[in-house]
Amino acid sequence: MADTDSIDTRIPDSCPASISEILKHAWHHNLPSLKPLLNVLGRASVQEPTTGETPLHAAIRACKASDEKSPVTAKDVVEELFMSGAIWNDVDNNNETPGCVAARLKQKDLYEMCVAAGVRAELLFEILEGYEALSSADEDEEFVDIRGNGDENAEQDDDEVPELVNIQETEIVDENPDRAFTAPKPVAATIDSEDYLRSNLTYSDGKLVDAEKNGVMMAWETSIMRASVDALLPCLTSGRRILNIGFGMGIIDQMFRDTEPAKHHIIEAHPEVLAYINGPGCKFGKDWEASSPSEGAYKVYGGKWQDVVPKLLEAGEMYDAIYFDTFGEDYSQLRMFFTDYLLGLLEEDGRFGFFNGLGADRQICYDVYTKVVEMHLSDAGMDVEWLEMQVDMQGLEAEGKGEWQGVKRRYWTLDKYRMPVATFMG
Ligand SMILES: C[S@@+](CC[C@H](N)C(=O)[O-])C[C@H]1O[C@@H](n2cnc3c(N)ncnc32)[C@H](O)[C@@H]1O
Fold first, then answer.
1. CATH homologous superfamily for 7-165?
2. What distance in angstroms lies between residue 325's CA and the mean position of ligand 1's atoms?
3. Which of 112, 203, 241, 252 sits in a 20 to 30 Å window from 407, CA-based?
């Protein structure tokens, strides 16, 4: 069988000479020959037109699978490529980013360099978005959704980050003809929050899906919800005050309810979820509200959290545990929640958690976003502890099969869930 990681497979004879030269120097870790070629903007991110090999892929792929430290020469080349504007999340024809190749070949140091580059790029991207907002003030998209949209949103355009990073060192060219490769496209899942809130939902055995068959909530996540409740309410003490944002299938709310809280508030925006809550099979309808230990202690607030939370703040509501798990919203919304509102809602020694599906369809994206969100939480005055738990992947292995049958996109691919437990800095 042909070695799919061989230089001949990855850089075929048909490769244009100008691209092949860069890729081969990167592959052979020949820094003296490579470096002068990178002085033109865009050359660090050339792509072989048929395999999608970039210099980063080449430099990393040339290292054999090994538990030993990555070769110094490879690290030097990878560093030089990043300094020259190489793109951390370009995918090749195997749908692998350079970091995915590093992970597969057990090149831990090179993998960490890719993660660090991803974090730098995302932070820079955020600054650029900020500058854009000052001039145009209309679009405010951020990199990835917690649930809903795919990680492919995270890929940067060819001309985004590198221009600013390397402006002094490089000669600027108008167009980059060296990136003719078309990456394999995953099943598209671009979800707009307003469209979602207008769409028809279906509750069926083990899942809640929207009109497009996007999985809004699935029963396989029960173990994650269980672990989140256990982490947010240590010892599961009764009499706590709880706020949950996003009812979905009510899995986490049932667990919160079982702890016999003194206050249990739920915010839910979708009219059909609200109808389900008030329907015959659900235990969170009017009877539940009427069973409150004190006036208004058990309550479902209908509406978007963005509209409800300011009213809770105004009313002086405080909570010991807050969980955030919405659907189809940008990460920017989660960030806005913990940056702008959490301080006013959470008790000093309270705990905050959220469903951590950021970049969960690719390990390196998950690792990058873990670091980015940690920085943002820190900016908001929060420390975060990540509790890692095993996810039982049985039935979750393949798109459209097992648990994913009848669901448009497999939004979870990882065997470990990193659960955030955030507290105010001490
Ligand atoms: C993933 S589900 C929550 C699942 C829940 N953790 C459980 O255990 O079943 C997300 C929920 O958030 C709701 N939602 C989406 N956007 C919202 C918003 N802006 N405000 C409040 N709820 C929202 C959705 O309608 C959906 O019911």
1. Ankyrin repeat-containing domain (1.25.40.20)
2. 6
3. 252
